[in-house]
C-alpha cells in the first residue's frame, strides 16, 4: 500500500475530478450525449447512492496496469455523470498487493464498506486467492485483468478481459496456417503458472507435435525487473536452435529487456507474443532498439495477438479512444478498455436490478445483459462468465511518425 493511503480511501480524488472536468470540456455537450447515448428530452431518474470497490496494485511491476484499470473505470463514470445504473457512484479503491493474503485483506476492506460490487484485480495469484471469499460473500466481482484458466465453477466472479491461455491460442492457430513448412520456431518465457497457461494455449492452437516448434520451451527468470544480461544464457540456448522466429511471453520492464537483449545478440528474426509484450509505453522506450538512424524499422517484425487495438474502427472505440486520449494524453491499452467495459457491464446490470439493488440481484442481472457494445467490438459473456470475443493480429510499425501496434486483421473468435 502506498504510504499514507488508508485501506478504504475514496478514489474520487481531486485529480480524478479534474480529469472528469477535462473530459467533459473536451467532449462538449454533443460529444457527451453521443458517448452516453442519452436523449435530451428524457429526465433521468437518480437512484440511491452506491459504492463499488476497485481492487488494483498500487506498487510494484503491476502498478502501471493498475493505473490503466482505474483510468478506464473512472472514464466511464465521467462520461456517465458519475453514475452506474442511474445511481450516484463512489469508487472505493484498495491495494491488492501481490499475494492471496493481501488480496483477501483488500476484499475484506471492501465488504466492510458494504460495496454493491467489486472490479479490477491484476495479479492471477490474487484472483485465485480471493475466489472463495468472493463466492462466500455473494458480492459480484467483475475481474478486468487477471483470468487464470483454473478459475472454474464460479458464480459471483465475472471477467471482462480474457482467459490467459487465449492470446497464445489465437496466435498459435494463426501461425499454424501462415508459417511456411520448414520454419523453425523457439518458445521462450519466464517461469510460472501464467507462462505455462500461455504456452499451453499457444501449443494447443499451433499443434503441440508440429515439427516447426523446435525443442521444449526455454524458461527464464520470472524477475519483473531483470537487469541487462539476465536473459543471455536462455537467449544463447534459443539461438543455438537457429530459429526463424521466437514466441515469447513478457510484459513491462521484462518485455523491454528481453527485446533489447535479443536484438543485442544480433538476432533479427520475427518475434511473436501475446500483446502484453508491447502494451503501454514500451515502444517509446524501445525506439532506438527497433528503429534505424534514417527512421526505418530494423529487420525482424514484432507481431502480437490481443483482444483490443486502439485503432479499431468502430463507433464505440472512436468515442472511448478519443475521450481516453483527451483525458490522459495517451492511447488506451487493453487493460483500460477491459476496465471501462467492467463499468459498462455494471451499469447495465445495476439498471436491470431495479431501484434498490442488492449484490445478489446485480449478480443475477449480469447474466441477462446480453451483448456489450465494446471498444473491442461486440462481445457477450459465455457460460464460464468470460467474454466470447474476437482476437486481433497487431504489428509494430509506424503510424505516421509514431511507433505503434498497428492492427493487421482479425485472427480468431474465442470464448
TrEMBL record:
Residues 49-400 form the Leucine-binding protein domain. SUPFAM superfamilies: Periplasmic binding protein-like I (SSF53822). Pfam families: Peripla_BP_6 (PF13458). Transmembrane segments: none annotated. InterPro entries: BCAA_transport, Leu-bd, Peripla_BP_I. Coiled coil: none annotated. Belongs to the leucine-binding protein family. This is Amino acid/amide ABC transporter substrate-binding protein, HAAT family. It comes from Micromonospora matsumotoense.
Amino acid at each position: 500500500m502506498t504510504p499514507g493511503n488508508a485501506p478504504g480511501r475514496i478514489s474520487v480524488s481531486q485529480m480524478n475530478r479534474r480529469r472528469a472536468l477535462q473530459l467533459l470540456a473536451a467532449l462538449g455537450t454533443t460529444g457527451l450525449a453521443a458517448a452516453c447515448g442519452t436523449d435530451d428530452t428524457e429526465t433521468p431518474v437518480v437512484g440511491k447512492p452506491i459504492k463499488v470497490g476497485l481492487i488494483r496494485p498500487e506498487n510494484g511491476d503491476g502498478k502501471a496496469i493498475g493505473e490503466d484499470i482505474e483510468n478506464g473505470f473512472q472514464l466511464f463514470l465521467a462520461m456517465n455523470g458519475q453514475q452506474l445504473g442511474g445511481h450516484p457512484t463512489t469508487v472505493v479503491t484498495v491495494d491488492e498487493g501481490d499475494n492471496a493474503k493481501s488480496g483477501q485483506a483488500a476484499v475484506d476492506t471492501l465488504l466492510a464498506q458494504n460495496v454493491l460490487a467489486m472490479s479490477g484485480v491484476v495479479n492471477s495469484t490474487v484472483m485465485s486467492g480471493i475466489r472463495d471469499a468472493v463466492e462466500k460473500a455473494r458480492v459480484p466481482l467483475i475481474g478486468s485483468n487477471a483470468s487464470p484458466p483454473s478459475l472454474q465453477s464460479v458464480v459471483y466472479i465475472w471477467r471482462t478481459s480474457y482467459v490467459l491461455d487465449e492470446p497464445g491460442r489465437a496466435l498459435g492457430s494463426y501461425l499454424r496456417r501462415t508459417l511456411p513448412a520448414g520454419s523453425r520456431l523457439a518458445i521462450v518465457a519466464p517461469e510460472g503458472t501464467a507462462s505455462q497457461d500461455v504456452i499451453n494455449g499457444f501449443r494447443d492452437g499451433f499443434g503441440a507435435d508440429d515439427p516447426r516448434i523446435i525443442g521444449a520451451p526455454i524458461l527464464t527468470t520470472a524477475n519483473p525487473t531483470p537487469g541487462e544480461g539476465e536473459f543471455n544464457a536462455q537467449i544463447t540456448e534459443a539461438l543455438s536452435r537457429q530459429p526463424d522466429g521466437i514466441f515469447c511471453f513478457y510484459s513491462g520492464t521484462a518485455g523491454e529487456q528481453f527485446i533489447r537483449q535479443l536484438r543485442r545478440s544480433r538476432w533479427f528474426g520475427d518475434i511473436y507474443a501475446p500483446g502484453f509484450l508491447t502494451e503501454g509505453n514500451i515502444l517509446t522506450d524501445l525506439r532506438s532498439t527497433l528503429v534505424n538512424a534514417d527512421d526505418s524499422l530494423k529487420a525482424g517484425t514484432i507481431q502480437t495477438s490481443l483482444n483490443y487495438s486502439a485503432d479499431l474502427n468502430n463507433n464505440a472505440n472512436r468515442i472511448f479512444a478519443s475521450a481516453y486520449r483527451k483525458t490522459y494524453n495517451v492511447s488506451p491499452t487493453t487493460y483500460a478498455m477491459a476496465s471501462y467495459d467492467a463499468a459498462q457491464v455494471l451499469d447495465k446490470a445495476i439498471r436491470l436490478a431495479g431501484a434498490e439493488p442488492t449484490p445478489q440481484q446485480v449478480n443475477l442481472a449480469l447474466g441477462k445483459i446480453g451483448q456489450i457494445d465494446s471498444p473491442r467490438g461486440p462481445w457477450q459473456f459465455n457460460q464460464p462468465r468470460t467474454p466470447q470475443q474476437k482476437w486481433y493480429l497487431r504489428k509494430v510499425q509506424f503510424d505516421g511518425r509514431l511507433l505503434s501496434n498497428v492492427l493487421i486483421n482479425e485472427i480468431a473468435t474465442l470464448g
